[in-house]
From TrEMBL, chain A:
<keyword id="KW-0472">Membrane</keyword>
<feature type="domain" description="ABC transmembrane type-2">
    <location>
        <begin position="40"/>
        <end position="267"/>
    </location>
</feature>
<keyword id="KW-0813">Transport</keyword>
<feature type="transmembrane region" description="Helical">
    <location>
        <begin position="71"/>
        <end position="95"/>
    </location>
</feature>
<keyword id="KW-1003">Cell membrane</keyword>
<dbReference type="InterPro" id="IPR000412">
    <property type="entry name" value="ABC_2_transport"/>
</dbReference>
<feature type="transmembrane region" description="Helical">
    <location>
        <begin position="151"/>
        <end position="178"/>
    </location>
</feature>
<keyword id="KW-1133">Transmembrane helix</keyword>
<keyword id="KW-0046">Antibiotic resistance</keyword>
Automatic annotation (TrEMBL), chain B:
<feature type="region of interest" description="Disordered">
    <location>
        <begin position="316"/>
        <end position="341"/>
    </location>
</feature>
<dbReference type="Pfam" id="PF13732">
    <property type="entry name" value="DrrA1-3_C"/>
</dbReference>
<keyword id="KW-0067">ATP-binding</keyword>
<dbReference type="GO" id="GO:0005524">
    <property type="term" value="F:ATP binding"/>
</dbReference>
<protein>
    <submittedName>
        <fullName>ABC-2 type transport system ATP-binding protein</fullName>
    </submittedName>
</protein>
<comment type="similarity">
    <text>Belongs to the ABC transporter superfamily. Drug exporter-1 (DrugE1) (TC 3.A.1.105) family.</text>
</comment>
<keyword id="KW-1278">Translocase</keyword>
<keyword id="KW-0813">Transport</keyword>
<dbReference type="Pfam" id="PF00005">
    <property type="entry name" value="ABC_tran"/>
</dbReference>
Amino acid sequence: MTTTLRDAVALSERPARPSPVSTTLTFGWRALLKIKHVPEQLFDVLVSPIIFTLMFTYLFGGALAGSTQAYIQFLLPGILVQTILFVTIYTGYTLNTDISKGVFDRFRSLPIWRPSPVVGALLGDTVRYTIASVITITLGLILGFRPDGGVLGVLLGVLLLLVFAFALSWTFIILGLLVRSPNAVMGISMMVLMPLTFASNVFVDPATMPSGLRAFVGVNPVSHLVTAVRGLMAGRPDAAEIVWVLIASVVLTAVLGPIAMRIYRTRT
Amino acid sequence: MSDSLAVEARGLVKHFTSRKSVTKAVDGIDLSITEGSVFGLLGPNGAGKTTVVRMLATLLRPDAGTASVLGHDVVRDADAVRSAVGLTGQYASVDEDLTGTENLLMLARLYGFTPAAAKRRVQGLLEAFDLADAGSRQVKTFSGGMRRRIDLAASLVLSPRVLFLDEPTTGLDPRSRNQVWDIVRVLVDDGATVLLTTQYLDEADQLADRIAVIDHGRTIAEGTASELKRSVGEGAVHLRVAEVGDRARAAEITERVLGAEVTFDSDPHAIAARVPDEGADAVPRLLPALAEAGISVPEFSLGQPSLDEVFLALTGQPLPDDAEPGEATSSEARESTEVSR
């Protein structure tokens, strides 16, 4: 084995340092490989939107909106937002798993553009978001969701949602860098996201809520996002809400991105 | 002088602060490692070995002191250090969900190999490390020895000039351990510099040109294996009695004949004694005296003290010789507490 080892290790020419784009894409490729090897990780992504959609449509639809048909037009964009927001947790979860398994330190010991593992993972997340969106919308169409915005409206709604999801992911990246175990990331994230998605206009019109709660729903970023996505899909884009979501995304990224990368660099 | 040093550290300090206390993981360590040599950092769990390596590999920023690898400062010139260094340890691992091939391909691409060159490189490494057949399997299905070989292969993708191996053989069976040792010898033959941490004396003795014994974040001794042994005493007698019940009597006779204190290790048959200078002439009389007492001694050796004894003499406590990685408790294992293997 000695000679083969010598030959294998010997390097006639050192390759040039790869570009940030190249290393980021390599990490995106890794995320895809992980989905291929561990398809179970998609289980939540697939199952929770199905359960929520079926449950709310048939359990509450008639009571809330007069008919399940009427309710699903209102509910589906909200469910989509909820689903994608929950999927963003996985960004922090997988990052934290990498840290606890030691893979993360291997990456940090490489001479590469420092943010590329994180940015590459975000790229890989796109696949998860896309699968979740397709499942949710397909189920909606089967149940009678007929968006007036048409294909374009639905696509724009999803696109806006993805922009916000990427921005929000930084929160979970920070959490993933700070918290001790992957399960703790999951627990804390759920504790934050549960109230944010339920105390919003995802499931019901807040008009009948008590004034305190209604005020909260009014300022809840999830409500703004839902209203914007709903508008796009219904063919009645609400420019003010769309701008609100875009600004929120930029602010989140501008503030949390550098903080996350700072923690990432100095993490001991 | 310093241009022939692959690794140089002066007064390295790293303290970890938790809610209640400050752990002085590394408390002022100096290192000078000559290019092309193997340097062993020997110490028990929690001595600070891993923390030293993490600082040298740019994963941790020293609280005080300076360190450079091939002349590049580990803080100011971290990227140059990263290009020159390969790293293997429980904290710098491969992705268990991916296959062996995928892991190496990913690293080769991250080091800048073109897709075709990466493929060739990975194929060669897998064959050299006897992993060609296992390459298409997920790493989590690998045996301990295969796992360590893929970790090593991962750190050699770019032919590093300096290789940090953190406890490369902990938990391996003897055959796999020998394979790892062979790999290290080949690399050093080809001019690489290796910094190796270990809690196995045998390993440091076998591989390292120079050894630093560290404990509680400080260097307590440094030198070649034989220098360290000489610092402890002239020589040592090791013997094993056939009957466990004879050990106490044999010890008594040994003490009387040699005029030296006897130590016992975990083997219930074994006795060791350091031979004092004035007792050297008495050694030939020991075997007849034992035979006269009717004690059968199937094994007897006279030689330099083992590093075990060195460690005992330096720290006043024996070196834990078969500690498992999972037993690590102090700051050194802080990062690894979540690691399951």
